[in-house]
Design brief:
Two copies of one chain form a homodimer. In chain A, 71% of the residues lie in helices and 1% in strands. Chain A is mostly helical. Chain A has one domain: Farnesyl Diphosphate Synthase (Orthogonal Bundle), CATH 1.10.600.10.
Chain lengths: 308, 308
Amino acid sequence: MSQTSSSSDFNARLIAVADDVELMLGQLLDEKAFFNEIHRPERLLEAMRYASLGGGKRLRPFLVMESARMLGASGQGVLRAACALEFVHCYSLVHDDLPAMDDDDLRRGRPTVHKAFDEAIAILAGDSLLTFAFDVMGDVPTHDNPAIRAELVVGLARASGLGGMAGGQALDLAAEASATPLAMEEILRLQAMKTGALLRFGVEAGAILGGASAAERQALVAYGLALGAAFQIADDILDATSDAATLGKQAGKDEGRNKATLVSVLGLEAARVRCADLVAEAEGALERFDSRADGLREAARFTMARKS
Amino acid sequence: MSQTSSSSDFNARLIAVADDVELMLGQLLDEKAFFNEIHRPERLLEAMRYASLGGGKRLRPFLVMESARMLGASGQGVLRAACALEFVHCYSLVHDDLPAMDDDDLRRGRPTVHKAFDEAIAILAGDSLLTFAFDVMGDVPTHDNPAIRAELVVGLARASGLGGMAGGQALDLAAEASATPLAMEEILRLQAMKTGALLRFGVEAGAILGGASAAERQALVAYGLALGAAFQIADDILDATSDAATLGKQAGKDEGRNKATLVSVLGLEAARVRCADLVAEAEGALERFDSRADGLREAARFTMARKS
């Protein structure tokens, strides 16, 4: 496997993409803001900005853009699609942090939206970010071909809803409330839905935008599935081993909640080994793309090595 | 203006459409439910069914189907689009009822979702219904032409989000918390967003599905705007004059919250006159369609005459 891109190249590219994403997220919200000069819901708009601007690694948008780029697609349309996915991620953080859900006060080192604003605005800001994601994804500037836009809309909805992220969060809350610990198989299923589905859709969106063949798309989905699983184990390891100052959010939450994770089931060391195996699996899934996929390979390694 | 359809024809048709919608909503949720045989989020799915099945006049779907029918479009695709809009309406009721929002315990004569389940499930059920709406709207069986599906997705998102329903709800909450009463212009703007946008989109969706000309679409939008405004005044009149047993939800809420409505600003009689004027305006906007639009005319009159 060739290694034309170094880890520092990758970090520079991740930061460059995050900058582009930040700019476009702000621009999209600005455009939206001017629909209505009189009697505008300013506080809602402010909460939407607060929830989506000023931070985050922007890993999901990176996956969209890097997989599209690998297949020869780039430009403002790809960036818009990447931002649509990021808006969904941002909405999910706002709603997951609510008192009735995970009840978190801190996110990216800042008060969560319901703390900085209030609960009603946090609910509405999440709703509006989710809704806006489909506006952005479905609209003409995202792609000339409406069939591509419609496919992206449906894919995003499936990754986000009952069968994906929201369903995974419901399973997670049910598991916390239950006296019976989850079986390994159930933990994996839950995590594949809760965090895996959006990450997997990131590369799938890149595949759709880049006009991937069926085989290419299948390879990218295999990569996305392994990456998503590795990402979640790394997250669970960080929760068990890091501190709030490094994470920018509360640490040790899983143990405090008696949450079943691969760390609690396998132990820390075996969880680390499994994470490394999944990263290798993710890299292996990209074989057919040769060195063009080095950015995605680095992303898989980054997933495991990240500190927050 | 011809009167080929009578009021009882209209009621029969409204009920027939509601039956079709109920069936399709259930069918769509069933299809979605089988994505995942192992470890399914059953309680979330149950809450989504509870929130969307078993009641409601289904006025928004009726507007989609009746305006599409008037333009010669019907069938399962139109019904799916109508159901996508209804899922958004159902999600909005679930979230609006939450303790942090309007804090309602009763809806359609039954406990609200967060009462029948819990707050976390209510938030997630709303999120998942909203997300599912875009899945249904964007997917192939809704229309052969992906440009139509993408246009419907974007229109639905705009009617539902910051510039529409969610933004209107944010303005409404801000007004309740404010010491300064809203000006008439602000009340109208708020209501056009909060309830008007989805009703207007109903006929617009019908126009898109029916391949309306620009002039036809403009006429339908004018109808939708007047209908939406009439609907909201009628709602405010019902809140002021009806009781919980008839409404299936708490009555007298507006006065209890010192909410500015056209009833509180104009008084009951002037509000009734204005409502009737808006219904006449809605009917007038349909002139170009002759008797083909009688169903929509009846819908406008129904809006004013309804008891719940």
